[in-house]
Amino acid sequence: MAKNTASFTCQNCGAVYGRWQGRCEACGEWNTISEEGAAADRAGPGRSARKGRVFTLEPLSGESLDAPRLASGIPELDRVTGGGFVRGSVLLLGGDPGIGKSTLLIQATAALAQGGHRAIYISGEEAIAQVRLRADRLGLAKAPVELASETSVEDIIATLSQGKTPRLIIIDSIQTMWTDAVESAPGTVTQVRGAAQALIRFAKRSGAAVILVGHVTKDGQIAGPRVVEHMVDAVLSFEGDGAHQFRILRAVKNRFGPTDEIGVFEMTGMGLREVSNPSELFLSERDLGSPGTVVFAGIEGTRPLLVEFQALVAPTSLGTPRRSVVGWDSSRLSMVLAVLEAHCGVKLGGHDVYLNVAGGLRINEPAADLAAAAALVSSLAGASLPAEAVYFGEISLSGAIRPVAQSAARLKEAAKLGFTKAFAPDASRTDGGSDSGLSVTAIGNLTDLVADIAASGRRAKGPPRIAAQDG
Ligand code: TYD
Ligand code: MG
C-alpha cells in the first residue's frame, strides 16, 4: 500500500510536520499549520534512484564574465538592481497592496519592449482589460508588450518556451500561481514554493530575466515561505505609505549587486515618476524654524540624502508615557532617550515622545542618532534649531558622539542644498569638512549639544524648561 504522504505545513514559515499541532515550533505562530500534499521536491517512493553523472571540478582562478545585464530604462530601478536585470536571474519584488508594484513593472516592461526586447507581462490577479486600462492611463498602450492573464505555471512555461526567448518576464503575483506538480491548493506555501521553483528553473534554462511579484503580510514579510526569498537571486521591497506619494525601492538581497542602494519614485496621476534628487523632495515641505524639527544628513547606499526629523515631547497624562516613532528604529529611540536621561540630565519620564521622519521615509542608519537627539531636546526646550544646519553622528551609550562613514559626501550634499552649518562628530572636520564650505561644529559629547540647545532656548524665551526638569 502507498504510504500516506500528507504532511502539515506552517503557512507562515514553511516548516513541515508529520502531524497537526496548534503552534509552529519553528516560528512560534499559532494556528498556521494546515494539511498539504507532499512537497514536490521530495523524491517519492515511485522515483527510481538515478546514478550520478560525473562532472569536472573547476579551479577558483579563471575567466569570469560580468553578469550580462539588461538596463530597464528606468535609472532609479537600475540603481537598486545594480545596473539592470541580470539574464537568467529571478527577482522577487515585495510590497504592500496598492503601493505601485504593478505600475512600476508595467512601466519597466513597456520601456524594455519599446527598446526592441521581447517583454512579457503575466498577471494572475487582474484581467487583461485591467492591465490595458492601467497601461492606457500611463500612456504606454502603444508599447509592444505581450500580455496574458494566466495562473498555471505549466501553461506559462509552455507558452514562453515558444518563439524568441523573452528578455523579461513579469509574474504578477507568485501567490496566484499554481503548478500541477504539487497537490495542495493555490496560495499555500507548498504551491508558492513549487511554482517559484518551476519558474526559477525556466529562467536559468532560458536566460530570461524573471520578476516575481510577492505580497506582503501585515508585518512587512513577503507572504509565503521565506524559502522563496532564499531561492531567488534578488529581493526588492517597494515601500511607502498611503499618505505620501513617495515610494522607496530597496534591495533586501542581491546576488549581483549592492543591497544598500535605494530608488526614489513619486506616484503621480501618470504613474511612477523618478526622483533623481530626493533630498530636494524630502525637504520641500520643510517646517522652518519650529522647535523639534531638524535636518539629518544621511546616506542611502552611495547617495547622500537629507531628511527632516520631527520630534514632539509633551507632558503625559498617562501613567506610562508614550514612545511613538515613525520611520526610525524604536529601540534606537529608547537608547537615545536613555543616554539623554543618564548623561545629560534631560528627564523624560513624565513626557510622551513622538518622533517622525518626514515624507514617509524609513531611516536605518545609526548616524541619525544625533539628529534625533537634537530634535527631542529642541522640542522639550521649546527652542528651534538653526534652519541652515544639518546634523549627523552616532551616539554611544556613554554619550560620546562617534564618527560615521562618508562625512564628506554628507557635507557636500548639504552645501549643495544651501546649508551653511553642520553639527557632526569630531572627525568630520578633517574628513572632508574643510572643503565642503560648511562651518562644521564638532560635537564630542551629547552633553555639549544639549547645553547648546538649552542655552538658545533660554535666550529665546522665559524660564529654562530643561533645567526645571533637573533634580
Ligand atoms: P498598483 O500598481 O496596482 O499597486 P500594487 O500592484 O502594488 O498593488 O497601484 C495601485 C495604486 O496606485 C492605486 O491606488 C492607484 C495608484 N495609481 C496612481 O496614483 N497613478 C497611476 O498612474 C496608477 C497606474 C496608479
Ligand atoms: Mg498589483
Describe the structure.
This protein has 471 residues and is an alpha/beta fold. 27% of the residues lie in helices and 24% in strands. The protein has twelve helices and 23 strands. It has helices spanning 75-81, 101-114, 128-137, 153-160, 189-206, 226-231, 278-282, 330-344, 369-381, 407-416, 446-460, 465-469; strands at residues 7-10, 16-17, 33-36, 69-70, 85-86, 90-95, 119-123, 146-149, 168-172, 209-215, 234-239, 246-254, 262-268, 271-274, 293-300, 303-315, 323-326, 351-357, 389-391, 394-395, 401-402, 421-424, 439-442. Helix 8 packs across helix 11 and helix 9 (369-381) runs parallel beside helix 11 (446-460). The longest helix has 18 residues, at 189-206. It starts with 6 loop residues before the first strand and ends with a helix. The model is unreliable at 39-43 (pLDDT under 50). Bound molecules: thymidine-5'-diphosphate (TYD) and magnesium ion (MG). Magnesium ion is lined by residues 101-102, 125, 172.
In percent terms, what proportion of residues is strand?
15-25%
Q: What structural class is derived from the secondary structure elements?
A: alpha/beta
Mean pLDDT: 86
Bound molecules: thymidine-5'-diphosphate, magnesium ion
Distance from N terminus to C terminus (CA atoms, Å) equals 80 Å
The residue fraction in helices comes out at: 25-40%
What's the β-strand tally?
23
Task: Name its key features.
globular, 7-stranded mixed beta sheet, binds magnesium ion, 9-stranded mixed beta sheet, binds thymidine-5'-diphosphate, alpha/beta, 471 residues
